[in-house]
Specification:
heterodimer, A: 486 residues, 0% strand, globular, disordered N terminus, B: mainly alpha, Four Helix Bundle (Hemerythrin (Met), subunit A), 6 helices, 71% helix
Amino acid sequence: MHEAMPISNNLWSQFTDNPLMVLSIFGILLMFMGLLPKMKEWLLTIGLVGLLAGWSITLLNWENSLTATPIFNMLTFDRGAIVLTAIMIATLILIFLVTDHKSIMDMNHLGEYYALMIFALIGGIIMVSFKNLLMLFIGVEILSIASYILAGFNKKNLLSNEASLKYFLMGSFASGILLMGITLVYGMSGSFDLEHIAAYTIQYNIHPPALYLVGILLLMVAFAFKVSAAPFHFWAPDVYQGAPTISTAFMSTVVKTAAFGAFYRLFYTAFNFNSTVWNTTVLVIVGLTLVIPNLTATRQTSLKRILAYSGIANAGFLMMVLLQTNLVNENGTHIAQSNMSLYLTGYVIANIMAFAALFLVKDATGSDELESFKGLAKRNPYLSAFLTIAMCSMAGIPATAGFMGKYFMISGLLESGHIVLSVVAVLMSVVSLYYYFKVIKAMYMEEGEGAHIVLNPSYVFLFIIGLVILFTIGLMPHYIRDLFLM
Amino acid sequence: MLATYAFFFLAFIAIFFALLVVFSKNPIHSCLYLVLTMFAIAGNYVLLNAQFLAVVQLIVYAGAIMVLFLFTIMLLNLSSENEPVKSNLIKFIATIGGGSLLLVFVLALKKTDLGPAPLMFPNPNQQGMIQNLGKVLFSEYVFPFEVISILILISLMGAVVLGRKDKKVNPINE
């Protein structure tokens, strides 16, 4: 039992096998650089260099990931994990570009802000690559605690304080439920290791012990909370609205990607064999998550809140992946994870573009209500065009990434035989058009006053990259999906 | 046999005082009952041959965390008067929800065959002693042990960032 794990004899491979080491070093570097006032303008550059280094390491391991071996028997950077890691690091690079703005550069504790985001990313990477439930919990905690702090970073703002506290209390409660689930699964299967748990699931497939099923249920509840799926979504709109816009962008993209990666990884690897048992629960959660937020969002007047509800609605689409765990393509490869990665890429990019636009408009007008977007097309035609394309992608207009993501999800659902849910999903997708187009209507059809917003090179780069990715996925989705697969 | 009696005694104490924590009107009393619950749970750890865990439980929970609780309660001057009043509807919903979860747990426990009872105290192989724990921690679980330092780092950083008084008032734009 106490076999000593071979510590890799090559020190260099610790740096090149996965991005964790490089990212940690840059995180600590940024933290200490925050102490030196003179280094303030270099923080963003150093952060971007670190993230690009981590991203390159991830991409260099792309080929090896098909035959990945576990690290210390704790993490496995297989293809699914590498894809999600690459998505998360790229997302954070784009978020860092959004921070290239005067109001952020003047902020207190800027070094810590960047460092916290990078450390949270490390938690996310652990979550998408875990092989052991212990690592899952540590990853969840690193990601969550960093997010609580990011949500409350605007210390003088009561809404931000409320968001942080609410997120902390609810999140700790969910972590408790997660632990209880892990305890029960460990108690029955006798192991934290995903492979052992999977073997146990297969062994007791006919009559799974009731306590084991309760453990699976608790794990599902905890994850449904973390991804803000209904009926565990009540914290999300308040937290998203109260937190600083950059933190909200971070929470609705990187955190969500990590949570879904972990959710899928756990249920696909460990519990897939008795998926018929928990499929009903997922079905109900997905149905609720599609209906409730889409209907609530139609009544919102603040873009930040609309984006929060759209995040919940998208969680409904993403959770469909759990109903397709047995779906295979003509080569016999499981494609659900690839579908999820494709959906996540489109969702994350469109979200960051929307949040960047929201950030700029809010900085100029001081409000995130739809009022302040009125007449934006006259003042800032390019910014409005970018926001429109982001909204179209989220609504699922053809030729954009959002459409292809939804298309793959729903067709996978149909192949798995969930006809009613597919109809609900399509209907709710139509409902979502209403509130996404409310934003476009405010920009183009209504008159309003406001100042011209200047886009600096970082923002132009961000929007152009976002546009390219959205249309690349929208126009050649099968190529991208196979890229994620092979 | 003695271990079984000890288990039932400790379990009774733990549950009894846990109930008192919830039902007691005075937050300081709740806090002190919680200390006793922690002690009873530490006793249960000893019965499960997890001696080190029992000591840590006493030092960290009964010692450090409960003192923090008491300080916070005293500093905020909480008492039964300024306790927020919950509406009856919320109480009703909470009862239904909690009761359902309890029912699920009880039924699942009744239905599940938990196998033979674990080795009770005193167990000659001393698996829960600090020596064995250290060996496992630095061989099999060395990776999570190292990774958890990031968790501690961000907690420290968060405490400093949120707790420090800034000279310059210049928050993010919203």
